[in-house]
Amino acid sequence: MTLEAPVPIDRRKLLAAGAGGAVLLGTPGISYAASRPLLTHGVQSGDVTERGAVLWTRADRGSRMRVELATRPDFKHARELRGPALTADSDFTGKLRLSGLRPGQTYHYRVRAEGERASDALEGSFTTASDECRDITFQWSGDLAGQGWGINPEFGGYRIFQAMADSEPDFFLCSGDFVYSDGPLVETVALPDGTTWRNTVVEEKSKVAETLDEYRGQFKYNLLDENLRAYLARVPMVNQWDDHEVTNNWYPGEILDLPQYTEKNVDVLAARARQAFAEYTPGGFDAEGRIYRKISYGPLLDLFVLDMRTYKSANPDADGPTGQILGERQLAWLKRELRRSDATWKAIAADLPIGLLVGDGAGAWEGIAEGTGGAPMGRETEIADLLSYCKR
Length: 392
Description:
Alkaline phosphatase; TAT_signal; PhoD_N; disordered N terminus; globular; about 400 residues; 4-stranded antiparallel beta sheet; 7 helices; Metallo-depent_PP-like; Immunoglobulin-like
């Protein structure tokens, strides 16, 4: 196929995917203002495979996501795609899942929010995984705006993302803590050399997140940074969550004993955080709504993204007989998919370290290892079982 030919995608699959996105996000009475909508936080792509990808954006009001997709940067022969409704139910975010793409193809996309008038367009690009044995490069990181260090305009913001973009990776794996929902920011931080670090601070970052809007605000804060927005428009992202999307060292069923929280039930906080995570990341979930999933990136690489939070046992019980980190279903899935994989490399993305000892109070452990020595205990038994299975 020449570059002058129409975009090599299956139109029926794409339109079906777009309709599905609209159903998931809901389409209750959209009210369009007379002025033009505005795309507020950039565009992103995520969970890119040989034949699929997910596109993301956010508008400032009720509207509809519209996408032009092309194989040429001048958008000649572009396909126009109808995306989901952007409504208040999803904080005006939306995703369009693409399928039927061509392997190893660079795609350029333009996104608009359409009301009575259309917004200005924002552009991005991504390259699908090749179905041939070609070199793959990806970047891996996490923990953004943590420990009190936010966006400092005097420093140039999150300028590391410009350096990362310059190396032109195939994708970016964010292994959790893409936001610090439990990490309020102050305007100034005194540095040891006598200078001052100056954070940009918004209302949602002035306290720990508890409400759904406060959790949404954590993502909106990071996306204020132009370096990050530019990076995500060029580099597809794979997301998993860790603890700071919710609160430090959390586990299901936990009741907080912290004065900064008025909502003490972690299950309530986690549900709100999970919704914000779903709304503000381009991929993040499989077809069944699970964070753990496999992303096949051609014949050389299968990426297994784990969820080491949702099914975790209580930290005080980490070394007991009920201790677990993955849960029975996720562990069985991982074994099965590893067995089925014929990729040369099988990368397992774990948001918790395997061997690092991380205490969480007297007799409690945040991670997998519990430091007693000897035979594996509690959560360690799951990892020992998995490693033994892989060895066989």
